[in-house]
Amino acid sequence: MATTRDEHSYAQPDKVRISDLALDLAVDFDRKQLSGTATYTLEWLDPQATQLVLDTRDLTITKVEGANREGQWTPLRYALAARDPILGSKLTIQVPERDTSVRVAYTTSPEASGLQWLEPAMTQGKQQPFMFSQSEAIHARSWVPLQDTPGVRFTYKAHVTAPANAMVLMSADNDPAAARDGDYSFTMPQPIPSYLLAIAAGDLVFEPISRRSGVWAEPAMVHKAASEFADTEKMIDVAEKLYGPYRWGRYDLLVLPPSFPFGGMENPRLTFATPTVIVGDKSLVSLVAHELAHSWSGNLVTNASWKNIWLNEGFTTYVQARITEALYGNELAEMERQIDQEELAREIKSGEIAPADQVLALPALAGRDPDEVLSDIAYTKGAWFLQFLEQRFGRDTFDPFLRGWFDSHAFKSATSDEFVDYLQANLLAKHPDMVTPAELDAWLHQPGIPAFAHRAQSRNFGIVDAARIAWSAEGKLPPASITTPWSTQEWTHFLDGLPETLPVERMGALDAAYHFSGTPNGELAQRWYPLAVRSGYHAGDDAMAAFLQVVGRRKLIMPTYEALVKTPEGLQFARDVFEKARPGYHPITTASVAALLAKAAPVASAASAADAPPAVSSTVPAPAAPATGGAPAP
Ligand code: BES
Ligand code: ZN
Q1: How many domains does the chain have?
Q2: Is any ligand 1 atom within 6 A of the Cβ of residue 258?
Q3: Atom number in ligand 1 closest to CA 320
Q4: Which of 32, 108, 227, 395 has the greatest number of CB atoms lying within 10 Å of its CB?
């Protein structure tokens, strides 16, 4: 059990720990707030301790009480400290009698960083409002006062009331047959860390995939989503064969509106997913493999604090690829690895990731927001390290080793050092001379990717590269006979290999042939629009503006904003589009875009005012049809 300090929490879990949480909450769409009580069952560890310290952010605390042995509630004294911009406000509760039950009554802020409240217009059905949470990394504290550290696990129960037409779901035992009556109860019997606490409310219906899995979504999306994710049960089977039983009961997916700021979130029993992966041909379902894989790496064995996040995301990316390979073949897994590895190489080369942040074993992150430190290092370098170990030891040895790691640390948190000790004792010591200390050091403590790492090399991408080179050299677009079988991954690789900028006529030729502008495929859109901006190609500007206004998934839209802010005209376009899009963005996305725009040079400076369009007239059209769903394109 990890006892290292978590620099992103005020809690003192060595003194007292929450072992169970009981929530009683009301969802108020008009006020955009949750209000009610959180009741904790406490385990007092330090015999001297008489204080319970909790994490909060932007919460209004109305009452704090403790229950004595007879179950009588009496008020407790408490103090809410000034708000730290990263950590929020420390809530210190005096518990002189060391009560085993403490209850806090509170209300969330409409601006809670971990919640998004959507007007009906921002949903697919346009009739009902919607609300969802995103707690990882340190946003749970904005909707529940908690020991908000992944080093503390608790079971939970919840009673939630909402308008009768709203279905409420949580990261718990959602009953597909539950009556939709505005009164819902949940139980989560397995202990989870706070970042896996999740809630959503809206016009949601269910369609089963198998006995233990299915999809929740708005009515107009649910069937399409269930077809796209039809292989979910097969994925669970593959993962169980490799790493032991799925320990969480049901595995359902919730498809959110397109403003969801991430691709997916591994909320236990109920993965939250962006609709931008539903492209009609199952080509982006590795996202499901990824979030499902977290049921072992992350949800079962949890990073003890955010500097250890590669134990969650790197392990999960490795397991994801194993599931993809087993179901769809090694070529798809290899294409995805190559795309990721080449992207990481670009980020390292461009200086986007500072050398100090390029190590797996990160130093303490005090003073830094964990959302900002997270990079492809944790994901891609983390997975690459495990692939390296797999190749050195062979699957016959490595697969049981990894399963042993999950089994021996189930329902616990772990640090990077603990993994390295486990690796030494259970793999390296038993098979000496297979990996040198210098190699281990290169993966864990040195920046960049070790020179001896094996680079992924997809066969299909050889064809894509040849087609791209022929086009660059002779201007001959690859014929349909070549491109028709291309999947999202091949098109992604085609775009990734194009030069920084292209002549406008060449952009036009590509667009006419393959219809990149307006593509419903977010993986292609996030590569095409920045290229269009850098190249000064404007024919797709309306489609680009619509994309930025409908989609809130940070990874998909940030590259376009980053390209836009590099010129005065682009910056003005970005500001106009952001102004329109902002009411529909999640707080996490809003924060990223606002920070980028604030850093960019002011548009109205004397030098650039002449070329920039007047600030009052908008360069941005109203959003068109949602840039999600539809046939795969190109
Ligand atoms: N757990 C992450 C999302 C996350 C990480 C949120 C850190 C906040 C802080 C999730 O499992 C994830 O990795 N999502 C990816 C999916 C992709 C790698 C398939 C995403 O959102 O892009
Ligand atoms: Zn993940």
Answers
A1: 3
A2: no
A3: 19
A4: 108
Residue 262 CA to ligand 1 center (angstroms) comes to 6
Which pairing describes strands 301-303 and 412-414: parallel, antiparallel, or unpaired?
parallel
Interior angle at CA 161, CA 157 and CA 164, nearest 5 = 135
421 vs 429: CA distance, rounded Å: 10
Q: Is 618 contained in some domain? A: no
What mean pLDDT do residues 525-532 have?
Answer: 98
Question: Would the pTM count as exceeding 0.90?
Answer: yes
Tell whether 118 is covered by a domain.
yes
Domain containing 322 equals 301-445
Are residues 427 and 339 located together in one domain of the fold?
A: yes
- Find the angle CA(252)-CA(378)-CA(429) to the nearest 5 degrees: 105
CA of 277 from ligand 2 middle (Å) equals 15
The pLDDT tens digits for 88-133 are 999 999 999 999 999 999 999 999 999 999 999 999 999 999 999 9
Q: What is the domain-level CATH number for residue 580?
A: 1.25.40.320
Q: Which pairs count as long-range contacts for 418-422, CB under 8 Å and 24+ apart, including other chains?
A: 418/2, 418/304, 419/311, 420/361, 420/444
Q: Which of 139, 142, 265, 374 is the best mutation target for the ligand 1 pocket, counting ligand atoms within 8 Å of the beta carbon and taking the most? A: 265
The residue nearest atom 1 of ligand 1, judged by CA position, is: 265
**Best residue among 262, 271, 290, 306 to mutate for probing ligand 1, ranked by most atoms within 8 Å of CB:** 262
Regarding whether 440 and 516 lie in a shared domain, the answer is no
